[in-house]
Amino acid sequence: MPDRPATAMFTPVDDLDEVVDVLAVGAGPANLSLAALLTPLGSVSLRLLERRREVRWHPGLLLPDARMQVSFLKDLVTPVLPTSPLSFVAFLVEHKRFYRFTAAGYDRPSRAEFDQYLRWAAARLPAIEYDQRVELIDLRGDVFDVRTHGGTVHQARDLVLGTGPRPSVPDCARRHLGPTLFHAGEYLAHQPRPDQGRRVAVVGGGQSGAEVVLDLLSRGCRDLVWLTRRDNLLPLDDSPFTNELFTPAYAARFAALDARARRDLLAGQVLASDGISLEILQRIYHHLYQFDCVDGARRPMVDIRPEQDLVAVEPRAGGGWRLVTRHTRDAQVTEESADTVILATGYTQELPDILAPLRGRISLTDGFPELRADFSLVWDGPPDRRIFLQNAARHSHGIADPNLSLLAWRAAVIVNSLLGKDVYDVTDLPSMLSWAGARDGDQL
Ligand SMILES: Cc1cc2nc3c(=O)[nH]c(=O)nc-3n(C[C@H](O)[C@H](O)[C@H](O)COP(=O)(O)OP(=O)(O)OC[C@H]3O[C@@H](n4cnc5c(N)ncnc54)[C@H](O)[C@@H]3O)c2cc1C
């Protein structure tokens, strides 16, 4: 077992003329975990640039009663450094909530509370600089130049990009984005007022779509159409053997497969990460039961239409939108109209645009960046100038990559690689399942 680091605080680098060892971009959970694990080591200089004025966790979907989909133990540090002062439990204790939290019986905290936890942890990480949107990264000589929107240029030896996944918007809708047609990630910014008596269309049958639909129903929206490509509203598979996919052992097994096998597996594992929480499904169903069976004549218009692919969106002459959908099996085309369209169409992991000057030097396979086991990009730059990508390896490291489950473990793998030694123990028990092709003790 490697030695556990002491928890001494580390001094951020203030002098812009100085080349920092590690420059991280984006203070979401991924890079907060990295900072929380690097900070106590004190052996490398770190600067973490965040475009917002404070840390916020998906603020556009921070609905009042939304809950997390993973245990609070899968926080920024606990899976690799349970003695860290930045654990979720330490947050509870400091806020004197520990007994109430346990009395409440929560395994999954509310997203609002996890957002508070992230901001509390960020406030204890001196390396973060806010209001610093990174625009471009290039290599000049043998260091990276990292240019922000204010024109500041930071220089760094290694980079860790944690800018998060990009909202996925259907091509047909992209040019119409605005206050009445928007991605679910901006829901709270444009939330339609239910008293307007206007028709709302929600596109997408995953967790975000379901949360938006439940919020609209709870707030009195009574004219709603919900479109999904899926053949039903399907629950998240949170069962024990499926949760084996969210372990270091499975990540190692997955990374060892060929690209085609990985693609096939990911397609079959969608509900392990993109299904709807059972509780949300029940609450939506209860609303509909009340409307249909109890309220009777005052039945509102709530139309749930599975197996529909959105193929076109056009503005209507009198305002609002005309939506064209195609049935996924018989290709029959149907038209819908709505005053507001909410695209709960998920997120995609892509090479961040800020790497545009280096794009031609980065190795891609099937359009995806090629990543080593330590999450560093394969590129033709100097071997000791590395670019690590957080939350961009679903195609190569498996379904857990965009999730919080392996967040601290992935940050620890990156820290070990940055320092060139096993500071953190990232090994784990083998899987409960004997996956074909996996060997006992397989590690990334
Ligand atoms: C609504 C929602 C709920 C989720 N709930 C769960 C859950 O319960 N459990 C779970 O396991 N997973 C969940 N996920 C999936 C995943 O855990 C989160 O997406 C997680 O936030 C990913 O962390 P990240 O740090 O990679 O990216 P993000 O959280 O997206 O953070 C990226 C950060 O980078 C900053 N940034 C972006 N570009 C720049 C730039 N150019 N310069 C500077 N800063 C920049 C952003 O402002 C942001 O702060 C959820 C996802 C969503 C969308």
What does this 3D model show about the protein?
With 444 residues, the chain is α/β, with parallel strands linked by helices. It is built from 13 helices and 19 strands. The strands form five sheets. Strands 1, 2, 3, 4, 5, 6 and 19 form a seven-stranded mixed beta sheet that branches. A hairpin with a 2-residue loop joins strand 4 (134-140) and strand 5 (143-148). The longest helix is centred in the middle third of the chain and has 17 residues, at 278-294. Bound molecules: flavin-adenine dinucleotide. Residues 25-31, 49-52, 57-58, 61, 68-70, 133-134, 162-164, 208, 354, 390-391, 402-405 line the site of flavin-adenine dinucleotide (FAD).
What is the fold's blueprint, element by element?
Layout: E1 19-25, H1 29-38, E2 46-49, H2 88-94, H3 98-104, H4 111-123, E3 128-129, E4 134-140, E5 143-148, E6 153-161, E7 166-167, H5 171-174, E8 181-183, H6 187-190, E9 200-203, H7 207-218, E10 223-227, H8 248-255, H9 259-268, H10 270-274, H11 278-294, E11 301-305, E12 308-315, E13 321-327, E14 333-338, E15 340-343, E16 347-348, E17 364-365, E18 368-369, E19 387-389, H12 394-397, H13 407-419
Parallel strand pairs: 1-2, 1-6, 2-3, 6-19, 8-15, 9-10, 9-15, 10-11
Antiparallel strand pairs: 4-5, 5-6, 7-16, 12-13, 13-14, 17-18
Helix pairs in contact: 1-13, 7-11
Bound molecules: flavin-adenine dinucleotide (FAD).
